[in-house]
Amino acid sequence: MAIGGGSPIDAAKAMWIKYEYPDCTFEDMCKVFGIPTLRNKAKFCAISSTSGTATEVTAFSIITDYKKGIKYPIADFEITPDVAIVDPALAQTMPKKLVAHTGMDALTHAVEAYVSTANCDYTDPLALHAIEMIRDDLVDSYNEDKEARNAMHNAQCLAGMAFSNALLGIVHSMAHKTGAVFGDLGAHIIHGAANAMYLPKVIAFNAKDETAKKRYGKIADVIGLSGSNDEEKVKALIAYLRGLNEKLNIPLCIKNYGADSYPTEQGFVPENVFLERLHDIAVNAVGDACTGSNPRQPSVEEMEKLLKCCYYDTEVDFLKNIEKEKAFAKTVVSQVKIGRQRFFIEEINGERPFERLGGYRGTLYCFFDVETPNRKNNRMSAIGITVVEEGKKSARNFYSLVNPETDFDYFNVKAYRNQ
Questions:
Q1: Are 171 and 73 a contacting pair, CB within 8 Å?
Q2: Global confidence as pTM
C-alpha cells in the first residue's frame, strides 16, 4: 500500500518490482513495457493525496537519478495499481503552490493524451472532460475553494486514466530531462511547473501537424475559446494557457524560474549553464519514452531550438517555412553528396512510415550511399530505409539498389531535410 503524492507512490511501484524480482536492475525497469509479470507475491493499493500525477491509476512511475540529474520513466501496465482510492478529502490540505503545479500537470496529461498518436475513442472522452473540469475548477481550487478542490481531485484521475492508455508527448519528455539536471545549482524545476511552461511551446510545435492542429482546435472549443479556424483556435489556446500560468503564479520560461519556483527577473539557471547542457538535455529528451507518441517526432536539433524557446520565452517560429522545405526524395537526391545523408521520412508509398513498416514508432531515416563500390561503374546507388524503434538502440534496415536518376521512385519516398 502506498499513500501520498506522485513521488511516494512512484517509489512504491519501483519497490514492488524489486520485491518480486530482487535481481531486476534499474536499467531493466526502464525498458518500456519490459517488466516481468507481477502479483506473484503482492498486490498494490494506491491512495493519492495530491491532485495531479494520477499515478494511482497509471502504468507509469518516474524515478530520479540524482547523480545524473535525469528523471527516468518506468512504463508498463504491470505496475498499474490493483486498487486506487481517490478521496478528495485527502487533497484539502495541499499548499497553494502544490495545487498550481499538480493542476497544470493534470491539464498537461489530458492535453497530451488527446493529441497523442495513441489516442482512441475510449481515451478522448476522459481527456476532454478532464480538460473541461480543470478549466472550471483549477483557479478556484488554487484560491482555496473546497468544492473546486474536490472536483480537481476527480479531474486529475480522469486525466490519468486517459494518458495511461493514450500515452503522452514531448512536454513530459522535456520536463523529465530538465527537472533535475540543474540540481547542482541548488534547486529543481518542479515537474508540474515545467509542464506548465513547456506546454504552450510544444503546442505551437505540434500544431504544424494537421491532425494535431485539429485536435488542439477541439480542445479550444471545449474550453470555450474563440477562433474562426483551427489556426486561430491554437493561438487562443496558447494564450489561454499562458494566462492560466500567470493566475497560478507560475513562470512563463526557465529564464524567469526562481529557485522557489516563483517568477523572478533572473532565475536560478544561468544562461551559460543552460547552453552548456542544452545538447545533452535535447538528446535525452528525444530518447525519452514519452517522445514516441508525440504527434511530431523532433530531431535533436529541433529539440534544442524548442528548449531555447522554453528558456527565453520566444516564439516557436523556426518551423514556419517547413512546408517549403518538404520535397520528394527524387528531387533532393541530386543534392546528396558522396556518403550518407539523412532525411526525415514523411511517407513511404503514400503511407506514414510506422504504419508501413511493421508498426514501428520511432525515428526513420533514409540513407543514400552514392556510388557504392560494387556498382560504381553503372552509377547504381544503395538506398536504405532505416527504422529506429523508440527506446531501443537496434535498427531495422530496408535496402534496395536503384539508379538514382531513373528508378528512385521505386520506394516512392517523400522526405525533407531536418531543419
A1: no
A2: 0.77
Q: Concatenate the DSSP letters of all residues of 355-412 into one string.
A: HHTTT--EEEEEEEETT-GGGTTTT-EEEEEEEEETT-S-EEEEEEEE-TTTSGGGS-
Helix axes 210-223, 191-206, angle to 10 degrees: 120
Strand partners, 364: 387
Residues 99/77, Cβ–Cβ less than 8 Å = no
DSSP-derived letter for residue 123 is T
Closest CA to 95 of 248, 291, 315: 248
Residue 298 DSSP code:
-
Q: Cell digits for 183?
A: 540540481
β pairing state of 342-348 and 327-328? unpaired
Burial environment of residue 3 by CB neighbours within 10 A (0 to 12, 13 to 18, 19 or more): middle
The per-residue pLDDT for 395 is: 42
Q: How far is CA 294 from CA 114, 302, 355, in A?
A: 11, 14, 15
pLDDT at 247 over 60: yes
Query: What are 276-302's pLDDT values in tens digits?
Result: 999 999 999 998 889 989 999 888 989
- Mean pLDDT for 186-194 is 96
Q: Locate cell 518551423: which residue?
A: 319
pLDDT over threshold 70, residue 97: yes
pLDDT digit string, tens, across residues 204-240: 999 999 999 999 999 999 999 999 999 999 999 999 9
Strand partners, 382: 369, 401
Q: How far is CA 78 from the centre of its chain?
A: 21
